[in-house]
Amino acid sequence: MLSWPVVDPDAEDEVALRQVAWACLSLGAAVGVFAVAFGVGAVSAGGSVPMACAMSLLVFTGASQFSAVSVILAGGSAGAAFGSAMLLAARNGVYGLALSKLITGSLARRLVAAQLVIDESTAMATAQEHPRAQRAAFWLTGGSIFVCWNLGTLIGALAGEAIDPLTYGLDAAFPAGFVAMVAPHLRNRLGLEAGILGGLICLVLIPFTPIGVPILCSTAAVLIGIPARTADEAEALPGTAGVP
Amino acid sequence: MLTWALILLLALGAYACKVTGLVVIGSRRLPAVVERCLALVPAALISALIVKDTFSTGQDLVLDARAAGVAAAAIAAWRRAPVIVVIVLGAAVTAVVRQLTGAD
């Protein structure tokens, strides 16, 4: 860089904050697409439009919602649907740990913030350098995704009631959505190994176990994370990004 | 069947996970081995969901139009295409192959 104009640090801060805001808001729009697919799937799984919307408002963690509905769609039990969703939701607990230094203030404020602890808000917040930008990124990403996720769910649920999902290949929208979600997690070696192993466990168990059980068993693949890793590999680990 | 009971349980469970990390445990650390394994849950579990949604109907393993659609989606995701392209391509290729083969 030849010359970096040194301006009033506050003004520079404002520019950086505006860039962060723009990134956060466009991420929200992208996530809305997932939500439309979710809405379609939720009504196909026998849910009503209010059910689909309530799920996005209250559960608000995309991968868990998708997996619960996917197990139900295949004819799995509510227990298996709940179990798979909770296994995916557990990582939000880990995100919360990482964010707890950042999200301070009154208990009420932190209880509201907790609902917004998802893949994207964590990834965007931890990608920023300064505490002020980190906090802004957390609230902006969480807020814009909350709005887009719920709006998209409503649109998808209304559309899902009006059309035959099979004609438009919408039964493949779920696995395609999962493909988009899992891609960032497979870009490091350990993640790729866990993904392949998880997929294989599921494939082998499908004919022999009740629906939903293969999904639960696939998480045994995470045990390959037990051996201590070199610093290099450990750095590549925390897989964020995907859906809320 | 999606029920209100399941939705409310999911809501409570999901919020409990979030609150536990952010508010209850706070900045205390989990054992490193637990964090390492938890970081791998999405890779393992979502991959399993892809296998199930692509290659099974109930308890039967099947190979149908969905495989073509998901393969197209995988290529798009690997080439870092935007999310909307990945999903729409997956659905569109499935629909077209289904039409052409005249079956599910």
* Greatest chain-chain contact: A-B, 110 and 80 residues
What does the main sheet of chain A amount to? none
Shape of chain A: globular
Q: How many helices of chain A does DSSP assign?
A: 11
Strand content of chain B: under 5%
Secondary structure elements and their pairing?
The complex is a heterodimer of chains A (244) and B (104).
Chain A: H1 9-44, H2 49-58, H3 62-73, H4 78-99, H5 107-115, H6 119-127, H7 131-162, H8 173-182, H9 189-205, H10 213-218, H11 231-236
Helix pairs in contact in A: 1-2, 1-3, 1-7, 2-7, 3-4, 4-6, 6-7
Chain B: H1 4-25, H2 32-55, E1 56-57, E2 60-61, H3 65-78, H4 83-101
Antiparallel strand pairs in B: 1-2
Helix pairs in contact in B: 3-4
Structure keywords:
heterodimer, A: 244 residues, mainly alpha, 11 helices, 69% helix, globular, B: 104 residues, two-stranded antiparallel sheet, 4 helices, 4% strand, elongated
Describe this structure in words.
The complex is a heterodimer of chains A (244) and B (104). The two termini of chain A are 37 Å apart. Chain A has one domain (32-236). Mean pLDDT of chain A is 84; it is low at 1-7 and 234-243. Chain A has eleven helices and no strands. In chain A, α1 packs antiparallel against α2, α1 packs parallel to α7 (131-162) and α3 (62-73) runs antiparallel to α4 (78-99). The longest helix of chain A is centred in the N-terminal third of the chain and has 36 residues, at 9-44. Chain A has 244 residues and is mainly alpha-helical. Chain A is globular. By secondary structure, chain B is mainly α. Chain B contains four helices and two strands. In chain B, α3 packs antiparallel against α4. Chain B starts with a helix and ends with a helix. Chains A and B meet through α1, α2, α3, α4 and α5 of A and α1, α2, β1, β2 and α3 of B.
